[in-house]
Fold Putative peptidoglycan binding domain protein.
Amino acid sequence: MKNTKHLLIVASIAAGITLVGQSVHAQQVTTTKISKVTTYNYNEYSTVTVKLNDKSDIVKHIQGTLNLYFGSGLAEDGVYGKFTEDAVKSVQKKLGVNVDGIFGPETAKVLLKYVNNTSVDDKNGFSPVSVNIQEQLVSLGYNLNANGNLSSYDTILAIKQFQKANNLPVTGKADMKLLNKLSKEDKIKPVSDTDYYISVNSSDHLCRIYQKINGKWKEIKCFDILSGKVNKGEYASGLHGKEIKFNKVTMKNFTQIDGLHVFYSSEKELGYGLRISDESAKFLSRIPYKTAIKVF
């Protein structure tokens, strides 16, 4: 039940960004926050061609990518209108492909390569999202001045440290891999009575364990939720135990979430919380009492 990961993606921020010094169309929408990252799956859409007056989700992703990387100022409405066509032509010219305003496999391929190798602030645009990236790094414990300049020495150093800590390519650039990781981190706001934090994603059926190391939260383990359900909310870990029986079925290495709801391992679903593998259950049973648990 693990997340499936796209092999090749062009990612976009879900609201448009306009860089300083760039022209702005009347349909532009601006933001100052990194939103949920949407993806363009090149493997899936590499044979798809979109052109003037087409309407689809892929058009939204194209518009978002052009806004983020080229300051196109497009409304991300999924409609391939005249403004989108003109923006595609401008990008095609910049990237050295046939300038026809049609987004086909050739344009998708060169745009993918550009996105994977370019910072969102490659020309020091000082866009609102640049400040948000810096503020997110500050909130994670990195020391830098959130002035919007992603090319500043302290920001590059912080980005490199974050990339190294999260097993990302250490480039010092605010690339798409960095934004994807920050987007995930933005969902997690660790506040715990211990140096550990447990996060349960109900949609992805994943549990992530974070540990505060040298003042910074770092993900130390991720594992599947095999079955079960707990209401969304915030809890604190309670009793631990090596073994207990419910309805004649053995529950091993349980950790209390709330009331009768626990993390546990067993041969089958018992209906008392979240069933996980025995290895993961043993790991959780060693987490300190009163560790914060967030189910979302």
